[in-house]
Amino acid sequence: MLNKVIITIARQYGSAGREIGKKLAEQLTIPYYDEALIKLASQESGINESLFESADEKPMSSLWESASSFNVISLGGHFPAGGEMPMNDKLFLIQSKVIKELAEAGSCVIVGRCADYILADNPNAVHVFIHAKEEVKLKRVVESYGIPEGKAKEVMFKTDRKRSTYYNYYADGKWGRAENYDLTIDSSIIGIDGTVKLIKEFAQLKLSK
Amino acid sequence: MLNKVIITIARQYGSAGREIGKKLAEQLTIPYYDEALIKLASQESGINESLFESADEKPMSSLWESASSFNVISLGGHFPAGGEMPMNDKLFLIQSKVIKELAEAGSCVIVGRCADYILADNPNAVHVFIHAKEEVKLKRVVESYGIPEGKAKEVMFKTDRKRSTYYNYYADGKWGRAENYDLTIDSSIIGIDGTVKLIKEFAQLKLSK
């Protein structure tokens, strides 16, 4: 239907963002990448070895040069002057590069990892945030993700807090605020299939312009 | 197309939320109400006279009884114990009642005034937030709303701050956060007509369930 489309999905835990991403990828017959796969791709890319090596033994400024030579995105003013770049930041840089390469290579669906921010300027990308009503998320977390009922609320809260902390640190905006995304949808209202349909409709409208 | 549909639109200043609301109302041939019209409806309803009278001369608890008898929504714990209800709060109660009556009377589009919060439990309502890229909003504010170029950014910032302050005071969530709305759309990406189309599609998906 579309020449090239990259759909980034950020999501609340339990909102079915992953399922929605997988269905989108299936229906558009394009690859699907989530956090685990991006991590794997980073490990397999060979980039990380060299970057990690240089990071392991050199101060930030040197790593900065290595990072720049890989054309990774800027992290703004997050780093203290001098000193080592924290491991999380190294991983973010590597994953950013992998995400940019995946988006360069062709159409795909990417879930998580600040992909909306990393690909903010990509003209073929559509940036979506999925959320849902608490009771619907809790039900899904217990019934589909196998989290014990007594733990579900806590796991949900902590996972979302981790995601928002990660996003708020690396991206410019605040996780879950409408203005960071092209489109946000409450998946508990129109269901997984309805949400998939609406995202495709939006992508069609955006990319046919 | 739909038996009954109430579409509430919250929006950033300059994002074309009003234009989108008007087009939706036209295309669905249903009434359109924005902040000014709701204010007018409140003044004309006759409700406000009695409510204002009782509010003018009585402490909060008595007004509370009057308000309850009108079946207006709760304002949570916002009021200090005892003392007069501030005029803004009276107006909010009256407008809430008018908004509920409009939604009860039939299909409509309602822009602003926390309508999403006031009608959160209305099964026929669809709650939308419209935003847009800053440069697109600035252009619209200058070219269509007639704000001088040197003032546009300030007017935009102050208007949105006013809206978010109003919302954050009266509603439960934070203005512009995805989870308060069924759907949020960046209108600068798919345009006014694209946004109208997508909202209709969403409403169809929600209300045909």
Q: Strand sequence of the main sheet of chain A, in spatial order?
A: 2-3-1-4-5
* Oligomer state of the chains in this structure: homodimer
pLDDT < 50 stretches of chain A: 55-74
Shape label of chain A? globular
Helix content of chain A: 55-70%
Largest sheet geometry of chain A: 5 strands, parallel
Q: Could you spell the SSE succession of chain A in H and E letters? A: EHEHHHHEHEHHEH
Helix/strand/pairing class of chain A, anyone?
A: alpha/beta
Radius of gyration of chain A over alpha carbons?
Answer: 18 Å
Question: Most extensive interface, residues per chain?
Answer: A-B, 24 and 24 residues
User: What portion of the residues of chain A fall into strands of 2 or more residues?
Assistant: 5-15%
Helical segment count of chain A: 9
How many beta-strand elements of chain A?
5
Overview of this structure, please?
The structure is a homodimer of 209-residue chains. Chain A is an alpha/beta fold. In chain A, 57% of the residues lie in helices and 11% in strands. The first copy, chain A, has helices spanning 17-28, 35-44, 47-57, 60-69, 87-105, 115-118, 134-143, 149-170, 187-207, and strands spanning 6-11, 32-33, 108-111, 125-131, 183-186. The first copy, chain A, has a 5-stranded parallel beta sheet with strand order 2-3-1-4-5, with helices on both faces. In chain A, helix 1 (17-28) crosses helix 9 (187-207) and helix 2 (35-44) crosses helix 5. The longest helix of chain A is centred in the last third of the chain and has 22 residues, at 149-170. The radius of gyration of chain A is 18 Å and the shape is globular. The two termini of chain A are 14 Å apart. Residues 55-74 of chain A have low confidence and may be disordered. Chain A binds chain B through residues 12, 129, 131, 176-179, 181-186, 189-191, 194, 197-198, 201-202, 205-206, 209, and chain B through 12, 129, 131, 176-179, 181-186, 189-191, 194, 197-198, 201-202, 205-206, 209. Strand 5 (183-186) of chain A pairs antiparallel with strand 5 of chain B.
